[in-house]
Structure formats: structure tokens, C-alpha cells
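Progress note, project year one: complex with inosinic acid.
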Amino acid sequence: MTDTLDTLVSRADIESRVADLARLVDTDYRGVDELVLIGVLKGSFIFLADLARALTIPRRIEFISISSYGDRESTESGAVRLILDVRHDIEGKHVLVVEDIVDTGHTLDYLMRLLRARRPASLKACTLLRKPDRAEVDVPIDYLGFDIPDVWVVGYGLDFAERHRTLPDICAVRR
Ligand code: IMP
Ligand code: MG
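Model obtained:
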């Protein structure tokens, strides 16, 4: 199957923005004993890998995975469920959720509520991409890479039906 791809954010722009975000996170968490980075599978795995390696503060990696009911590509219905949880208790920990993209906002909203209930010392969200035109839930984002238009994007961890996840650039796919 052939998809038509147009580069939206180049690998060079991603690299420099990830470095910016890492500097901000380093500054904000300076002096903290440990930051727990929770990557949201699968889409955030490349972003998390690059961000985590660009940081200098003490850090730990966890993963969480959620799914929308009905296995749809988006969570417009707002129905989200947890399919893989973190391996360690986050109570009293400084936690940063690392997402690939905030579309309607339902996924991140669900995750933040779920994690906040476990009483971390602090809880913030970092997302590489956001589609402001699609927002249905107002969920605060502490660190943002890029705002993008309402197009389906792939690459740098993001997929379209599991295709194009490992592309180095972020591309819009014409469906
Ligand atoms: P939300 O719950 O509507 O904010 O959707 C968030 C999730 O939908 C993201 O974590 C992605 O897994 C997926 N998603 C939304 N838009 C895109 C896209 O353009 N490309 C790839 N995945 C997307
Ligand atoms: Mg995601």
C-alpha cells in the first residue's frame, strides 16, 4: 500500500526542538532527586529516547500504554482504557508524562487523572505535537514541541495503521 507523504517537521527541526525541551526540563527539575519519565506507548518511544538522552538530571524511564475502545485511530468518543501500567509506584515521585501528540486531548486528560490519583510529588506533561484545532478537552501541557494543523502525521514514532513509525521526519499522510 502506498501513502503519499509530505514532510511537515524535518529531522533537523525535531532535533533542535528536542534539545530546547531538554534544556527547559533540566532547568525546571534542577536539584530534584529523580525525574520519572513515563512514555506513552507506542507513539512516544522515539521522542522519549531522544529526550531522555538529552537530559542531564537523574531520570528513570517507565512506559504506559492505553487504548481507545473499539481500536479506533482516535479517541473522539473519549473512551480510553489502560492496557499496560508502570512497573513502579509513583507516589512521592516527580513525574513527567511524555506523549507523541495531543489530538482531542482525551488520552492525556485520562492519563493525568489516573496518575494524579496516585499522589506523585509533581506531575507534568510533555508532548512533541499538538493539534489545537482538534481540542475537545482543555488539558494543560507543560512542554510542547510543535503545534500542527489538523492533518494525520506519521514518523518519529507516530504511525498510520502501524506504517511509517520509523521515518526520521514527521510527515503528513494524504489518505
Ligand atoms: P487524543 O486522545 O485524541 O488526544 O489522541 C491522542 C492519540 O491519538 C495519540 O497519542 C496518538 O496515538 C493518536 N493520534 C492522534 N493524532 C495522530 C496523528 O496525526 N498521527 C498518529 N497518531 C495520532
Ligand atoms: Mg500517543
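The chain has a mean pLDDT of 94.
The longest helix spans residues 11-28.
No further modelling is planned for this target in the current period.
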